Amino acid sequence: MGLIPINYEVKLCLANAILMVVEDVSLLGAVTKELYPGIAKKHDTAPSRVERGIRHAIELAWERGNTDTLKRIFGYSMDIERQKPTNSEFIALLADKFRVMGKVS
Known about the structure:
The protein has about 100 residues and is an all-alpha fold. It is about 65% helix and about 0% strand. It is built from five helices and no strands. Helix 1 packs across helix 3 (about 45-65). The protein is globular, with a radius of gyration of 13 Å. Mean pLDDT is about 85; it is low at about 1-5.
């Protein structure tokens, strides 16, 4: 991910969440019921730890991340200086970005 100073396992969980939503956008409507448990199962951990890890990664990105990079990634979809996205918003925005860029089919 590059802009978030977090451990490798959290990066994998976040990457899995984004890729799963790229493949099935309906998971955004079932984040706590399907997305987090699915990721937790893959990584042999609890869904609550997946949620907390992703939330922590977002908090670090907003506290310590490069503002220009955040603006470049998220554009006008949110006011970078005033609000940080929820886990679902963050995952949805990045999944949509990947879809638009055509990086993931």
